Amino acid sequence: MKKVISLFLLISSSIAWAIDTFNSADGQLIIPSVQVGSTLYTNVVVQLSQSDMLSVVVAGGTITGTVDGYANGILKIPSVQVGANKYSNVSVNVALADVISVGGSSSITLTLPNGNPSQYGVHSSNYSSASGNYTTSKSVVFGFTTLTPLAANLSNADISSVISTVNFDDGLFSGTLDNSAFLSSGGGTVIASIDNTGNLTSLQLTLLSPQAPHYAGESINSLQLTYASGTLTVIAKNNALCSAVGSNGSCSSFAPAQSLASSSSSQTFSVNTYPSYSQLFVFSDSFSDTGRRLLLEGIPGSPYWNGRHSNGPVSIEYMASN
Amino acid sequence: MLDQFDTFSQSPGANPADSNALYFIRGGQNDFDGCGDTSCTAAQIASFNANISSLITALADKGAKHFFLSGISGTTGNYRAGFNKQLLATASSLSASLALDITFFDYAVFSAATFVSNNPYGFTSLYPMDCYTGGLSGVGGKLMQQCLGL
């Protein structure tokens, strides 16, 4: 998912001209002011990558312009100080993801992705058949999210490509998979039907690790889920020892006394659609700082991550990207 | 945060405020630091809550409708728990009186359930946090690799 972060800034009526500063030691470019469309951003810090540096063009000559300009992925810099040297009319490719922080205001907005992410979930009844480490007091909780609600009136359609995350708990093993992990876990083909009101009416999928081809003696985890006509059937295997392999490379039978479980019961998939917002405005403290304090006061320093009071992105950044 | 609101209110996009946007609000933690945490009086704690109530009201006056309101850490001692309780009551009251959509996030309960000794969520920084001594400046502090002896 493309994450676009823009910052809400107070535009000054009088613009003080100042040159950019590039620190070759850490690759950070500090930009006093940059014009993007009709908006002027101030005190921007950009982390230039090696590929960014390869795109640098120094035209030289008389300085053109008073503030940086940014369009189509190219930053145009009137003047930049690098150590003891100044360079004029410089251009460099910069991605939005390279922007570490933007100063000028305490409130920020983050552009949210379009669409209404939806979550589909179901909780099976307790296993009716269980062996090994499974017990009949355990059950399956399963859910998946899509970036947008599944279209109405789908009939046995492959929806694997639009699934963003899958979560599961079979009583012994649980996890959350993103789309790529899900596809590599045997869920590559997920067949679903949706009625005319958006409800899920059928689903077939299998989570499998490791993937086929299998071999006799191999330990296999799997969760097979079939939902049709209001009946949910689950079959779970936990480190089950494969005893025979079929001609298609799949395990066809398992050794006795393995951890196997199954149930079949009347269940209904729930559907929750998350609200969608146009922007995110943040009024907060250091918990939500995306690097401004570092710019203004020089803290927090290393080993804190990119000026966050954190070892990674802060909560509002995750919130904005979801 | 009221200063943040003043900055926000001077921007063209704040007049009116975007009614389809989500307004994230988290404050109070630094207020407790300002009055000595456990030394904070009931009146001071009530004023922290009043600030946030004023912020939500001011945003609502400009047209904001959707809010994510976070409490602060601290479940032990009744001073922070009291603040969180007041904040939840504020959310409920403003939601009803101003017809706002306010989601209250109980950060104290979340953090208490997250940062527990058996570390169920696999935080890799639990040990290095004990080792790290650099403060916010980072000066003199050990890097995580050094903490781990790598």
Description:
- The complex is a heterodimer of chains A (322) and B (150).
- Chain A is mainly beta and 322 residues long.
- Chain A folds into two domains: 20-113 and 278-321, no CATH class; 118-273, no CATH class.
- Chain A has helices at 50-54, 179-187, 292-297, 315-321; strands at residues 20-23, 28-36, 39-47, 57-58, 68-71, 74-82, 85-93, 99-103, 108-111, 118-123, 129-130, 141-146, 154-158, 163-169, 174-178, 191-194, 200-209, 219-228, 231-245, 251-254, 259-266, 270-273, 279-283.
- In chain A, a hairpin with a 2-residue loop joins strand 5 and strand 6 (74-82).
- Chain A is elongated.
- In chain B, strands 1-2-3 form a three-stranded parallel sheet, covered by helices on one side.
- Chain B is mainly α and 150 residues long.
Topology:
The complex is a heterodimer of chains A (322) and B (150).
Chain A: E1 20-23, E2 28-36, E3 39-47, H1 50-54, E4 57-58, E5 68-71, E6 74-82, E7 85-93, E8 99-103, E9 108-111, E10 118-123, E11 129-130, E12 141-146, E13 154-158, E14 163-169, E15 174-178, H2 179-187, E16 191-194, E17 200-209, E18 219-228, E19 231-245, E20 251-254, E21 259-266, E22 270-273, E23 279-283, H3 292-297, H4 315-321
Parallel strand pairs in A: 1-6, 2-5
Antiparallel strand pairs in A: 1-2, 2-3, 3-8, 4-7, 5-6, 6-7, 9-23, 10-12, 10-22, 11-21, 12-14, 13-16, 14-15, 16-17, 17-18, 18-19, 19-20, 19-21
Chain B: H1 2-9, E1 22-26, H2 29-34, H3 42-62, E2 66-70, H4 78-97, E3 101-105, H5 107-114, H6 126-131, H7 144-147
Parallel strand pairs in B: 1-2, 2-3
